[in-house]
Design goal:
By secondary structure, this protein is α/β, with parallel strands linked by helices. It has eleven helices and eight strands. An eight-stranded parallel sheet has the order 2-1-3-8-7-4-5-6, with helices on both faces. GO terms for molecular function: histone deacetylase activity.
């Protein structure tokens, strides 16, 4: 297998545009790719353009009726639009099917590079639309590219996949798609569902039937910072990955855990997010033979957070790690100023936070330890693991 990291990108992916002042604005992707280029992260990297996912590929996850409704929605009387389309979260936009299918095709292209052995890692930052369900849109997501890519890999010879979602919102659509499929382990760390949409992702959601134990949910209290988030992550995720032994690790890397994100209430820094991405890379090497499929996700601090966070993610995936103390290039700032208006822009790649944390050792002494305890007690026995064992 090649050690190459494939990066799936084309400006046509910016066409997934929900319009106006919608929080999921494509400017965040444009500014990310511009920042990565200006820092030399993409020097010498051949960016691979995606093709639209076929109806057959989409039907691995979505119903035929829903796909037809998405295709027809821009030409349908708004009063007649169904399937969660036409809402404030999921407004209808021109060429909605084509743009959404292109995002899903990007995630399939990333998956294909890994399955074919042409790359160990692959990145589609436009992907990560994890809320879309089989027959309806939800949470800014029309087609669930995460689930589509996973289903494509299962149909093309991969037997065990771990999906790890670090978006601030629960990865509900992917969990629902594979809730009774023992081949896919879904792990989601998110703000507690009592305090944040979509209201799912309780630790007692563990999978069904032959897949009992394959859904893992860590519900974190509002205000959780770098040290708490990383403590909870390490207390749960490595043990589960070791147990399920995935052949590919798929990660949804939403940047909306940041303390400046306007739609949620966790309190991570860019430095903490960078540390989390580094842990994802290490886990892929340790438990999945290095096969790592990287997807984007949420993130609504469009100018100050997402470009920095995901530039670090790209750099880590390409083994071109950037020093947190690095400065933002003037050329990026000049362009960003034109689109950001009077909004303050960052000057460095860091928030100046040390993301050090104390690993969980079986003692409940941190504010996230209730979440750790609840998840470990719900899931670990189903994997033959001791929920009270504090060893790393």
């Amino acid at each position: 297998m090649s050690n190459e990291c494939a990066v799936i990108w084309d400006d046509s992916l910016l066409s997934y545009d929900l319009g106006g002042n919608h929080p999921l604005h494509p400017v965040r992707l444009d500014l990310t790719m511009r920042l990565a280029r200006s820092l030399g992260v993409l020097d010498g990297i051949e960016l691979r353009s995606p093709e639209k996912a076929s109806d057959g590929d989409l039907e691995r996850v979505h119903t035929r009726d829903y796909i037809a409704a998405v295709r027809a929605a821009p030409h349908t009387d708004p009063a007649e639009v169904r399937h969660g389309l036409g809402s404030a979260d999921n407004p209808v936009f021109d060429r909605m099917h084509e743009s959404s299918a292109l995002v899903a095709g990007g995630s399939i292209a990333a998956a294909e590079r890994i399955v074919s052995g042409r790359a160990k890692r692959a990145v589609n930052l436009a992907g990560g639309l994890h809320h879309a369900m089989a027959d309806h849109a939800a949470g800014f997501c029309v087609y669930n590219d995460c689930a589509v890519a996973i289903s494509w890999m299962l149909a093309n010879g991969v037997e065990r996949i771990a999906y790890l979602d670090i978006d601030v919102h629960h990865g509900d659509g992917v969990q629902a798609a594979f809730y009774d499929d023992p081949r896919v382990t879904t792990i989601s760390l998110h703000q507690h569902p009592v305090t944040l949409w979509p209201g799912t992702g309780f630790p007692t959601e563990v999978g069904a039937g032959p897949a009992e134990g394959s859904a893992v949910n860590v519900a974190l209290p509002p205000g959780t910072d770098d040290a708490g988030w990383l403590r909870a992550f390490r207390a749960v995720v490595p043990s589960v990955l070791e147990s399920c032994a995935p052949q590919v690790l798929v990660t949804q890397c939403g940047a909306d855990t940041h303390r400046e994100d306007p739609l949620a209430e966790l309190s991570l820094s860019v430095d903490g997010q960078r540390a989390a991405y580094g842990m994802l890379r290490d886990l892929a090497e340790r438990y999945a033979g290095g096969r790592w499929l990287v997807l984007g996700g949420g993130g609504y601090a469009l100018y100050r957070v997402v470009p920095r966070s995901w530039t670090h993610l790209l750099a880590l995936a390409l083994d071109r790690d950037l020093a947190p103390s690095g400065n933002i290039p003037a050329e990026w700032t000049a362009h960003a100023s034109e689109v950001a208006g009077n909004r303050a822009l960052p000057s460095t790649l860091t928030d100046g936070v040390d993301p050090a944390f104390t690993p969980w050792d079986g003692v409940n002494e941190h504010r996230v330890d209730t979440a750790v305890r609840d998840t470990r007690h719900s899931v670990f026995p189903l994997h033959g693991l001791d929920p009270a064992d504090g060893r790393d």
